[in-house]
Description:
The protein is α/β, with parallel strands linked by helices. Helices cover 50% and strands 13% of the residues.
Amino acid sequence: MRIVLFGPPGVGKGTQAQLLCEKYNMVKFSSGDLLREEVALSSPTGRKAEQFIKKGHLVPDDIIYELVDDFLVENAEQDILFDGFPRNLNQARSLEKSLAQLGQTIDIALEMHLDSAEIVGRLLGRRCCPKCGRIYNSTTTPPASDGFCDVDHTPLVRRDDDTEEIIRRRLGIYDEETRPLVDYYKSLNVYCRVDARGDRQTVFERISKAVNGHFNNRCRCN
C-alpha cells in the first residue's frame, strides 16, 4: 500500500499522518524529517543537504530524490505513507518512476481540503509548546488548561510564521506549486478529496472510510 497525503498548511496533515500510520501499520516518508536525520548522521546525502540548509536555501530536488530512492528500497516490503511529499508535479512524476522500477505505484492520493478562510483562522489560533513541541489549536485541539501544555505545563507560544500575511503567502505557494497534483492524480484514478473540517477524530474517520473504500471496493473518490 502506497498512500500520498497532501493539502495546504493548517489542515492537520501531521496529525492525520500519525493516526494513519498507527492504524494501518505504515512507515512514513517525510522529506523534512529524513533530511534532519541525514544531516544529524552526517551521511553523504546529509552533508550535501546541509550546505543548502545552512544558507537558508531549499534543498534541491535531486537530493530529495536520493532520499526517496533509498527509502523505497529499504522499505520495499512495508506499507508507506508519503506525508507532504510530493510537493509539485516534478516530484510526483519522479516518485512514480521510482516506484515503477520496483513494480509499485501510488494506490491512493488523499487531499485534505479546507476553505482558505478557515485555514487562516486555524493557524492564527495555533499554539505550540517550546519545550516538547506539541501543537494545540484554540478551536480544534485546545489544551486542558488554557495557555499551557498538557504534557509539561510550559506556557504555549505562537510560531513566528503564524501571521496572516505569511499564512496567505504560504497558501498562494500551495495553490501554485502543489494544487496541480489534483489533476495529476485524477489522471491516474487515485485521487480522493477529504473534507478536513471538524476535530481530528471526525476527519480521521473520513480518511479511514476513503482508504477502506478504495482498497475494499476499488472505488474512485474523484
